[in-house]
Design goal:
It comes from Paucilactobacillus vaccinostercus DSM 20634. By secondary structure, this protein is of the alpha+beta class. Helix content is 43%, strand content 13%. The chain has 12 helices and 10 strands. A 5-stranded mixed beta sheet has the order 6-7-8-9-10. Strands 1-5-4 form a 3-stranded antiparallel beta sheet. It has a two-stranded antiparallel ribbon with strand order 2-3. The longest helix is centred in the N-terminal third of the chain and has 18 residues. The N and C termini lie far apart (51 Å).
C-alpha cells in the first residue's frame, strides 16, 4: 500500500476525488468543507494522520498544511467538473452527477480533469502548484480560507495559553454547553484525580448526570492510552459522561476507544473548539462582512 504523502501532487488530487464523493455520500450529500476533510482522513488508511495535520513553514516564512492544499484543489476540480456545488458559503453538496457516478469505475482524468481544465480560470502557476511558496491552496478556495482565518488565529492563541489558562478556558467552554461545574473537583491547578473539571448536566426530562472533563493543550495527536486513563479517572467519580478537550486532534484509535463501552466520551478537537467559541461567543464577537459574487467580475 502506497502512502499518500509519497504520491505526486496530481496523483494525490486524483486519489482524493473519489474519496471526497464517497465521504459526502456518507455525510448525507452535503457537508461543511472541514467536516468533509476530516471524514476523508478518518475513512482512509492510506492517509497518515500525522501527515493530514502536518504544518510546514515555507521559505517565505508562511505556514501551510500540505494536505489541506491538495484537498482544496481536489474539491475545486470536482466543482468545476460538475460533481459538487456550493449551496452556501463554506459548504459543498453533491450534484446529481456526484450522487449517481459509479465510484468503482471512476476515472479522475477522463471524468474530472478533461472537463474541469477548460474552465480553470487561470493557469496553475508555480505559486499555486508548489506549496513551498507558502500558498495553502488559498486561491483554490478563497471562501473557505476567509471562513477559517479566524479559526487559525484562535488555534495559535490557544497554543500559547499556559496549561492553567487552558484548563480555565475548557471549564468556561463546558459551562456554556450547559454543564454546572463542581467547585471542589478538578479546579486545583495541581490536578484532581486526573480530571481538569467535573460537573452536572440536567437534561430536558430533569435527569442529572455527572460529567468529567479533561483538557489537553497539545501539539501532537491524542492517543488511545490517554482516553483509557481518562476513563479510569471517570470511574473514580462515577461519571456517566466524559468530555475530552484538546487543541490538537485525536488518532483513529483514540476515537474508537472513546466509543467503547456504555459510556461514550465526547471528543472536542481544535476545530470543534472554534465552532463552540463561535456558537457561544466565548471571549469573541461576530463581524458582518460581504463577499462580491462573480456578477461583479464580468463587464457585461
Amino acid at each position: 500500500m502506497t502512502n499518500f504523502q509519497d504520491l505526486s501532487k496530481i496523483d494525490q488530487e486524483n486519489f482524493l476525488m473519489s474519496k471526497i464523493i464517497k465521504a459526502l455520500r456518507k455525510l448525507g450529500g452535503k457537508s461543511f468543507t472541514k467536516e468533509l476533510s476530516d471524514e476523508v482522513v478518518d475513512a482512509t488508511e492510506e492517509i497518515p494522520e500525522e501527515y493530514a495535520k502536518l504544518l510546514i513553514t515555507s521559505k517565505k516564512g508562511n505556514e501551510y498544511h500540505p494536505f489541506a492544499y491538495t484537498f482544496n484543489f481536489a474539491v475545486k476540480y470536482l466543482l468545476l467538473a460538475g460533481f459538487l456545488k456550493r449551496p452556501i458559503r463554506g459548504t459543498v453538496e453533491l450534484t446529481e452527477k456526484g450522487r449517481t457516478c459509479l465510484l468503482d469505475e471512476f476515472d479522475p482524468d477522463e471524468q474530472v480533469r478533461k472537463f474541469a481544465d477548460p474552465h480553470w480560470r487561470r493557469p496553475r502557476k508555480r505559486e499555486l502548484t508548489d506549496p513551498k511558496s507558502g500558498v495553502d491552496g488559498a486561491d483554490s478556495d478563497d471562501e473557505d480560507n476567509q471562513v477559517n482565518n479566524w479559526k487559525d488565529q484562535l488555534a495559535i492563541a490557544l497554543s500559547n495559553f499556559t496549561p492553567a489558562k487552558f484548563e480555565l478556558f475548557a471549564r468556561a467552554l463546558v459551562k456554556n454547553m450547559g454543564v454546572t461545574l463542581d467547585e471542589s473537583i478538578g479546579v486545583s491547578l495541581t490536578g484532581d484525580g486526573g480530571l481538569d473539571g467535573f460537573g452536572y448536566l440536567t437534561t430536558d426530562d430533569f435527569r442529572t448526570a455527572r460529567v468529567a472533563i479533561q483538557a489537553k493543550r497539545w501539539q501532537g495527536l491524542v492517543s488511545s492510552p490517554e482516553i483509557d486513563k481518562f476513563r479510569g479517572a471517570m470511574d473514580k467519580y462515577n461519571a456517566e459522561y466524559g468530555v475530552f478537550i484538546t487543541t490538537s486532534d485525536f488518532t483513529r484509535d483514540a476515537i474508537k476507544a472513546s466509543r467503547v463501552g456504555t459510556r461514550v466520551i465526547t471528543l472536542i478537537n481544535g476545530d470543534k473548539i472554534a465552532d463552540l467559541v463561535a456558537k457561544y461567543q466565548i471571549y469573541t464577537h461576530p463581524v458582518t462582512t460581504y463577499v462580491l459574487e462573480d456578477y461583479y467580475n464580468n463587464e457585461q
